[in-house]
Amino acid sequence: MTGYLVPTKKVRVADLKQKKADGEKWAMVTAYDYSTARVFAEAGIECMLVGDSAANVVFGYETTNQVSIDEMTYLAAAVVRGAGNALVIADLPFGSYEASDEQCVRSATEMIHRSGAHMVKLEGGVRIASRIKALKDAGLAVCAHLGFTPQSVDNLSGFKVQGRDDTADQLRADMEAVVNGGADMVVFEMVPAPLAAELTANSPVPTVGIGAGPDTDAQVLVWHDLADFPAGGHRARFVRKFGAVGEALGQAASDYKRAVHEGEFPAEEHSF
């Protein structure tokens, strides 16, 4: 399987900044294991995010705040092995960077050292700007995450669009803070499209949208959402279904079960 404009060399942060300068869109998708990372690499995906959404879609936890840095590192290492030329970003999970700049650097360097990921992502604006600066001073690449930040869902009063009305100025201040702190990239989640467009136009670094309209430099989706896996699960308004992996896998499992029950498998050609 080949994809559209498959990267022929390792994708670096500088390459994504050049794409922004050239007005060229690019795609990011979540990945959590070797095999799906290989599929996405062959499809030409430029960037893979080992998101703390793994808490929900891999481990079955109720919230993203329950996943550990050991679990995230384990998944990130598997993705790196299958990612080919794609840039791999790993989320710093809840509890691994909030206490201090020192804790943040220690967690991030451990994540990068053990997994081979190329960049770490952390949530927050003004409040974590010093963490970003500390990571940059340590020589690491950093992605900031603004707008709806799942690790702070209780503080945000639930799953709500951020940056409407009087909170738009706060988002502008957050953007300024993370960029000045040295962030190499910024994710906007559930941000009004006009505000995301404004921030992107004024940003010196690439922006990535999820539920933030069409004008960010790139887009990201959880692969389980874009491929409808498991079939028929609840999907956010900003999700578009690009495939039906859940239905196809369910049908394959059902066909396999039937063939075993009816004695059709294994047949002579499957035997030695």
Question: How many independent structural domains?
Answer: 2
Beta strand % = 5-15%
In DSSP terms (H or I, runs of 4 or more residues), the helix count works out at 10
Q: What's the CATH H-level superfamily name of the largest domain?
A: Phosphoenolpyruvate-binding domains
User: Rough shape?
Assistant: globular
Oligomer: single chain
Cross-sheet strand order for the largest sheet = 1-2-3-4-5-6-7-8
Helix content: 25-40%
Rg, rounded, reads 20 Å
Mean of residue pLDDT? 94
Major beta sheet summary: 8 strands, parallel, barrel
How many beta strands in the DSSP annotation? 8
**SSE pattern:** HEHEHHEHEHEHEHEEHH
Provide the CATH top-level class of the largest domain.
Alpha Beta
Give the low-pLDDT segments.
none
| Terminal residue distance | 30 Å
CATH topology of the largest domain: TIM Barrel
